Every structure is written in C-alpha cells, then in structure tokens.
Amino acid sequence: MLTIVFGILLCVLILPFGILLFFNGGDHSQYDHPRPNPVTFKLEESAAHKNLTNLIQDERANSPKLGRKEMLAHMRLQMDDRGLAHQIDAQIKSVHADDVRGEWVVSPNSDQNRRMLYIHGGAYMVGSPRSHRLIAARMSHATNAAVFVVEYRLLPEHNRMAGIEDCRNAYLWMLGNGPNGPSNAEALIVAGDSSGGNIALSLLAWARNTRQRVADLAVVFSPQTDLTLASPSLISNTPTDVMQGESFGPIVKAPKIIRLGFSFLMHRINPKNPMVSPLLGNLNDLPPTLIQASNTEMFLDDAIRYANKANAQGSSVTLQVWPFALHVWQAFQIPEADEAFEDVSRFVTKHLRANPRF
C-alpha cells in the first residue's frame, strides 16, 4: 500500500516537471521589441465595425446551450452559412483531385498562372472554403491571382498532422495545376488567417526545408505562431478580443503546465514542434511576408514575435498593426477590411515587380 501511495505521489511531483521539460518552447521575450506603431491612416473606428462588434457580442450572449458535439456542428454550419450569404464577384470551381480537395475562387481578369493557396482559419476545428469565400474573392481581386482555398481535415475528428498534410498536398498540386487544368504556376503566394495563418507560416518553412519550390510571397492575417501559448498578449488582450476572449481566455489564464497539457492533448503534437509553432523554428531564408494584426487581439504578440525573429534572422516580414480592429477583420465587409486589402494589393504588386522572375 505504501509503495502505491509513494508511486502516486512521485508521479504527481514529476509530471509537472516533465510537461515543462518536454513541451516548453523556451523564452522568446527578446522578440517582444520593437513594438510596431498602429497604422494611422484610419483615425477612428467605422460605424460598420462598431455595429459588427455589437452583433458579435449579442450573438455570444445569446448562443444556444448545446452539448460539445452539437455546438461544434452548429458553429461549422453557422460559419458556412455566413460565407455563402455574401454576394461575390468571382467564379467558383470545386476540386476533388488525388488527395486535394477545395475550391478555386477566381475574380474576373485575374492571371490564372498567378496562384494563391489560401488556408482558412477557425481554431483548427471549424471553417471551410465555403465559410471563406468572401475573403478569398477579395484576395483574388487584390492580388490579381487565382485563389485556391484548401479543404483540410479538422480537429477533433482528425489530428493536426492530417490537416497539415492536406495543405502540403495542395501546395504541391497547385504548382502544376490551375483553375483551367494542368499548367505551371508562374507566381505562387501562400496566405491564411488565424489558425490558417499558423499553417501557412509552417508551410513556408517546410517548403524551404524539403527543397520544394518556395512561395514567392506570403500574406497572413492575425496568425497564431506559438502553440506553447507563451505570448503576453494572450492574457493582456483577453478583455479586448471580442472574437476569442470569452472562449480562449480561461485556457490561457490557467497555470503553464495546464496550458501546455491542453495544447498537446488538443493537437496531438508536441506544442514546441516548429511544424505547429512556426515561431520556434528557423526563420531564415523565407519569402517576403506581410502580416496584419490588431492591437486588441490575443494573437498580437504571436505576430510581433514572429516578425521580429524572422527579420533578425535575415528574412523580410512587414508587420502592420491596426488599432481597435476585430480578430481577422478582413473577413467582413467593413471599411477597415477595404483598407487592409489595399495594403495587400500594394505589397504583392511591389514584391512581384521586384522579383527578377517576373
């Protein structure tokens, strides 16, 4: 009996140290500076953004009381319905080819050999090409590219590696396939938002490491870059993040060993693995990247740390921080999104013109 009690006590004492030892990503606080100044060309919040914020808060307060599986199904359906409700000026082409599923979103007169892989967000659990048709159509217009939104496998039915493999397969497939069939991509852009931004940044390092053709550019919105949940803004911006604060706040405020354990159990991959925490990897020799984030969202410091580390290691990352904006505000029809896409257009045009291949 004493042996059993002693064994239990030993496990209780050792387990926290084991979690910290094997899952902790190390100290990246040196990349908290410099802090970018919020963009200044928008001096005040638009009425449309205020109304949207109020609508989201009302929906949170009146969300249905459902079980876990029922709530997940409800959230997926709700996101898809919102995406399908938008009128977009683009052609939609579904794809079921080999191991690749998704849809092309192609605006009029776009260059079909200039291609963008777009990886949707949704906390790795919700979202689809249908939920992100508006943002994909706006990306196509802003960049003059044919946009492929990959339908990757989601948690919890699948592990994170399944979704990552789907995005890698889509990346390789797009190099030789466009909206009208087989043809080589002349320009390749990788993009994504939130959790999709995480996968997009991871994809850049994977292509470099495996000597695949590296994307010419990347554009990511409000990315999560560190699954060890170590960024200070995860806690400091919980009260101001209308999209994520209520659901994600209790997790990041838990003790460190709880946060790390949660991250491991959710993703079924060590959270310090650069495959799921791109901040923790080698960030040299990556393509020019534009990151847009908000100074009120929880992932702010994820974006700042990634940009500062990548620039320190010789890559070129442009970080734009908006005041007051919602997490992934680019997904909505508001003036702030219009301005964001104008900057995306300028960034893509500038860097493709500077590339000697074009």
Write the layout of secondary structure elements.
Blueprint (H helix, E strand, L loop, with lengths): L1 H22 L23 H15 L6 H18 L5 E7 L2 E7 L4 E9 L13 H11 L1 E6 L9 H17 E2 L2 E2 L4 E7 L1 H15 L7 E5 L11 H4 L8 H8 L3 H12 L21 E6 L5 H13 L4 E6 L12 H20 L4
Helix pairs in contact: 1-9, 4-11
Explain this structure to me?
With 358 residues, this protein is an alpha/beta fold. It has a single domain (34-58, 71-353), classed as 3-Layer(aba) Sandwich (Rossmann fold), CATH 3.40.50. It contains eleven helices and ten strands. It has helices at 2-23, 47-61, 68-85, 133-143, 160-176, 195-209, 233-236, 245-252, 256-267, 300-312, 335-354; strands at 91-97, 100-106, 111-119, 145-150, 177-178, 181-182, 187-193, 217-221, 289-294, 317-322. The strands form two sheets. An eight-stranded mixed β-sheet has the order 1-2-4-3-7-8-9-10, with helices on both faces. Strands 5-6 form a two-stranded antiparallel ribbon. Helix 10 (300-312) links the parallel strand 9 (289-294) and strand 10. Helix 1 packs across helix 9 (256-267) and helix 4 (133-143) packs across helix 11. The model is unreliable at 4-13 (pLDDT under 50).
